[in-house]
Amino acid sequence: MAPPAVLIPAATLDAFVAGIFREAGCDAAEAGRISSHLLGANLAGHDSHGVARVPRYVEWLKAGYVLAGQTAEAVTDGGCFALLDGKFGFGQTVAPQAVALGIERAKQHGIAVVGLRNAGHIGRVGEYAETAIAHGLISVHFVNVAGSVLVAPFGGTERRFSTAPFSVGVPLPGRPLVLDFATSLVAEGKVLVASNGGKALPHDALIEPDGTLSGDPHTLYGPYDQVGPRNPSNGAGAIRAFGEHKGSGLAFMCEMLAGALTGGGTSGPIEARGRIANGMLSFYVSPAHFGTRAEFEATGRAYVDWVLACNPAAAGQAVLAPGDKEAATRADRLAHGVPLQPDTWEGIVQTGRALGLSPPG
Length: 361
Ligand code: NAD
Fold this sequence. Notes:
Largest sheet: 7 strands, mixed
Oligomer: single chain
Number of domains: 2
Strand order of the largest sheet: 2-3-4-12-5-7-8
Bound molecules: nicotinamide-adenine-dinucleotide
Low-confidence stretches: none
Radius of gyration: 20 Å
Helix content: 40-55%
Strand content: 15-25%
Structural class: alpha+beta
CATH topology of the largest domain: Ribosomal Protein S8, Chain: A, domain 1
Shape: globular
Mean pLDDT: 95
Number of helices: 12
CATH architecture of the largest domain: 2-Layer Sandwich
């Protein structure tokens, strides 16, 4: 049974986390971007990609795995397509730069393809789809984590893929759609939460080397103390790809497009690379340039309404569109505060104290 959560107002959490990154060596703008992105993941309900990451991000910065103050550099620029190198800068800095370029070029040409490699952890990918939506653009994002091998392919028991997320954003007026998920059956953060006594994993989320399905975090982390670090390289098993052969195939393509094509590398062994980094291949489409914007918006909107009018399978549980759950959680958490597990909050407070910051009173 998980202990009751601590409720922190969003603005208080944002200010404290931004202060941590300023003290850790980021300039104010970068510290604010990292903080608002992590907080945004909590507000969307994706706590595995939220402020719980603060201690790890600060450790990565100290160790030089991720660098402050980087600007993504153009490797290739073909007008409607480009490849950027993030130079291991914070994902919350270099990914928005890649997204801004994609938006600018799609507004110019109607379509743009932008690759980004060697980015620090870019966090919740749906945020980048939301940025494109705010500019009236459809976007599709294939992402991998070069050097992070955690997920077994369909039919296999050994780790071959990263948790390789995928996201699509669709800008219907007043009714945006944001599909955003990891291609693993559960994100690694959810295994971490379960290992800390939080929400249990589905019984078939993991797989042992002999092919037995498991919901026990030890399958991924091996032996561990209740309080203390978790290291996926200590476990013998793997997380399973979601959606059987279909989800496994999507993960495969994320590695191909975001890893191999960008030149950032696939989910190979970390020993060979020294650090992990996100790669992302993004496609941006402008419905206005496509010439069907009015039909797209009217037909798309009518279709959403028709799908959501479907009879629910379980009484009282309405059919939802991609992004609805996140929007509802955001509204609730902005109004009532962000719930954090006490250990998560304590970890952030300790990181702040080590940098000379007092926690908010
Ligand atoms: P998830 O399993 O919660 O799935 C989220 C998606 O499913 C959303 O599009 C959501 O709107 C939709 N959804 C949820 N409930 C629904 C319902 N009842 N009906 C219809 N649609 C519903 O997400 P996840 O796989 O745990 O991923 C969490 C986050 O982790 C994502 O934001 C992802 O980008 C991020 N991630 C990042 C990395 C990285 O390396 N940067 C790696 C893995 C995951």
